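User: Can you predict the 3D structure for this chain?
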Amino acid sequence: MNIQNLFDDIKQLKHNTARQYIYGYGSYGQNLFKILRDNGIEVDGFVVTNVLGHCLKSEHNVINIDDVINLNCGFILALNERNTSDVLNYLNSKKVEDKRIVLAGKHLETGNKRGMRFGSIEITTNIGCSINCRYCPQKTLLKSYFSGNKERESNMSVNTFERCLDFFPESHDISFGGMSEPFLNVNTIRMIELACKRGRKVSLYTTLVGLNEGDVDKLLSLPLEFVVIHCADKRGYAKIPQTKDYYKLFEKIINAKKSNGQRFVNMCNAQAEADDRLISLCQGKYEIFTTMTDRAGNIKEEGLIKKKIDNGQIRCGNMGEKMDSNIILPDGTVLLCCMDYGMKHVLGNIFKNSYEELMCGDEMIKVKKGLQGDSKVDLLCRKCSYAVLI
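Assistant: Here is the predicted structure, written as structure tokens:
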């Protein structure tokens, strides 16, 4: 991350254009708005591809890109990897010059592994996460997972993970995080090593809880593709024990670099304003993002990014049309996505179904009908912040 380079690019954008807008009104866009505001940099609002698709009730100025694309306006893209590519293609088709575009993700690492061009599988290594963040629907997941079977496997075994590696296409990236803190399962380091040994691109989302210094040393030796640290916050929304060892591990991993000289950690975020000591450790290296979503309507609190698209054809801004970036639970059950804490869309199980059956089975057919506009389908996606109205 180089925040000063971002500021310099935006200052040049202000020199080149009469007005400047952040492109994207999701968590990335709103986090960027806060970063700029805190550093005395004003923008004229937000642009999105389709305001109606956001169903917005906003205190900010949010307008359609088509309303300003032909004016002397600059655009600061704050989008995931997939949507950044789509928007760049659109802006290029409209002959928008490069001098009117700033890629925030180049400096803030916001183009994270959500929104990949290829499929992925997110590994939920355990059910019953003790971190129990305020803005994470753990109760909903626990109720759904153990309903009908109190003895259901709560920790993924190495054998199940090896089956997962054999089951999903070799082109699929592997992401450890899913719906819980991955290192609450003692097998996780081993599973990450196996994935890297197989040549998979591996991402990690962690609070560091469950790790010791030796574990961190092992992680730092592995070729991880993308790493996000979820930080302790001042309000205790994330129940991360703020011990002497925790701060030591945080400082070590936040200062670590890969063999190519890039920082080992790509992003930091928190459930509320981060702990002061962590802010100090990140100073000049990372901005700690704090904007949260309602997890596709699974959290009923105010102040979160919400979305509801009642009618029309939609697509997922994360997965696109293939819908092949899914979640696996400890017993091999595969869910549609990382928002499905209520297990509304169960695609199947890697011990009972083939990959083709997951991707072409009854549940996936139903989901895709709902995306195409079938109002009879009770579709989680219509409440999801990733949803895009076509």
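DSSP finds twelve helices and 16 strands in the chain. The first helix runs from residue 3 to 16.
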